[in-house]
Amino acid sequence: MPATAFGGELKMYYRQAMTGIRGAASPPVATRLEESQAQPLTPSYWLLVVFIGLLYANLPLVFPASEVLHPAKILGGAGILAVLHETFVRGKRFEVSWPDAAFLLAFFAAAALSCLTALWPGYAFEAVSNLIKMVIVYMFLVTCATTERAIQGVMWTMVVGGLAPALGTIKNFLQGNVQEGRAAWVGIFANPNEVAYTLVILLPLMVYLGGTRGWFARLALLGTACIFLAAIFVTFSRGGLVGLVAALGIYAWRKRSVWFQAMLVAAIVGGLAFGAQYWSRQQDFSQLTQDVSFQQRIATSKAGIEMFIDHPLLGVGIACSVVAWPLYAPHDLYTRGALITHNTVIQALSETGILGFIPFVLFIGAGIVHARRLTRSEDEATANMGAAIEASLWGLVVCGMSGGYILTWFPYLLLGLAGAARRVAETREEIDDTY
To answer: Residue 106, CB half-sphere, CA atoms under 13 Å: how many?
Structure first.
């Protein structure tokens, strides 16, 4: 008998013996998986979901009277208390995704230290106070979203929440409330590029969610996708358009479905053809060398590198590239005011130096690696989730090449989904290995 066959029979006899020893106390693997996925959603999870919904809603700006109640602060404080109660009273383990969390904490430490040498320490300190909120929400997401159902709930919240900036942007465009012909919304969505990238990273998640529900949900998601695409179009964001093609293209490639890939390619080609006919922005992708907006982005990247050369250890201070811009801007470049570094990677390099740049890049890279590994899972549901998150992350990276998004919420939410999905997959593997 070959050694492999003998080993297989020995393994089978061992499992049968262990089953007899465990008896009824050890349910089969399928039951264990169902039990792990049927865990009740905790109060901290629901607080997190509501908080994410408020991020998209921009409630204080839409309904200024609500600011008196400080809903985001109340929910944040309640969330911290809920996690502490679940950890110390109910005995729930507080776990995060490593080494991602270590990279994020190292980046935050570098950002905090950059306040000491920042060109404007007070401005940098204010940015750090916002960054710590994003770090906490990332930790909450990874800790609270411990099942596929919980992760999907966060995704649904993000998708439904995305309707607020999308509809607000379209409304402003139809009413003529535009900036140089480009539409946006309010608050954190007041910049057209930020509206575009926020909606781009949601589209792969929408495609994934459509595959987990029935036809009614799919039709609702299809209508939502059309609204998102219309909002992205009226922002006239070239970076958002390239990121959209990259995100959907990568998702189609990971799905390995010829029909799906063909439909997606046809949709992208049709969309580009439609956009070419009705693109109202004066500068498109042609004559970039004479495009003032494009030249400004290149100039901010060059200035960011010069900032790093002059301040290699901790940079000019988190969020202070806009403060340093007048010192490094080309004298012959037209701008209406100071500009931030329009490249997320170079922004990290210029504002937090090498001490912040390395962990920030590793943080994003680790999330992409985790998501990529999930796409190789034998479990179809896990592979589909990994493909959607990976595609969204690549959409973020591509959009980040023309925008500085370090101090925006959505990279941390997306990377939190990657960490949570990785933990769920690891739990599944542990159950498979044990039983």
So the answer is: 18
CA dihedral (33, 38, 40, 46) positive or negative: positive
* Residue 72 CB contacts under 8 Å (≥ 6 apart), including other chains: 51, 54, 55
- Local structure of residue 379 (DSSP, 8 states): S
pLDDT at 124: 97
Give 254's pLDDT tier (boundaries 50, 70, 90): confident
Q: What is the dihedral of CA 393, 397, 402, 407, to 10 degrees?
A: 70
- The pLDDT score that the predictor gives to residue 175 is 95
**Spatial separation of the C-alpha atoms in residues 368 and 358, rounded to whole Å:** 16
By three-state DSSP, how is residue 282 classified? coil
Residue 30, pLDDT > 80, answer no
Q: What is the pLDDT of residue 273?
A: 63
Q: CB of 136 within 8 A of CB of 406? A: no
What DSSP letter does each residue of 98-132 carry, written as one string? TTHHHHHHHHHHHHHHHHHH-SSHHHHHHHHHHHH
Dihedral sign, Cα of residue 402, residue 405, residue 410, residue 412: positive
Q: Which residues pair with 46 in a beta bridge?
A: none
**Beta pairing partners, 182:** 179
Q: How far apart are CA 163 and CA 356, in angstroms?
A: 34
Q: What is the dihedral sign for C-alpha 43, 48, 54, 60?
A: positive
Query: Distance (Å, rounded) from C-alpha 401 to C-alpha 342?
Result: 7
Using the structure block, give the residue that is written with the tokens 């080993």.
Answer: 7
Nearest C-alpha neighbor of 281 from the set 182, 413, 202: 182
Question: Other CB atoms closer than 10 Å to residue 416's CB: what's the count?
Answer: 29
Q: Are 392 and 155 in contact (CB under 8 A)?
A: no
CA–CA gap between residue 5 and residue 3 (Å, rounded): 5
Domain ranges within the chain, ordered by starting residue: 39-282+304-434
Contact between residue 95 and residue 420 where contact means Cβ atoms under 8 Å apart: no
- Is 95:143 a contact under the CB 8 Å cutoff? yes
* Closest residue by Cα to residue 187 from 398, 408, 393: 408
Sign of torsion, CA 239 165 184 227? positive
Residue 97: which of 382, 363, 372, 386 has the closest Cα? 363
Place of tokens 């539409």: 183
Three-class DSSP category at 267: helix
- Region 73-102: mean pLDDT is 80
Query: Which of 188, 160, 173, 202 lies closest to 59 in space, CA to CA?
Result: 188
179 three-class SS: strand
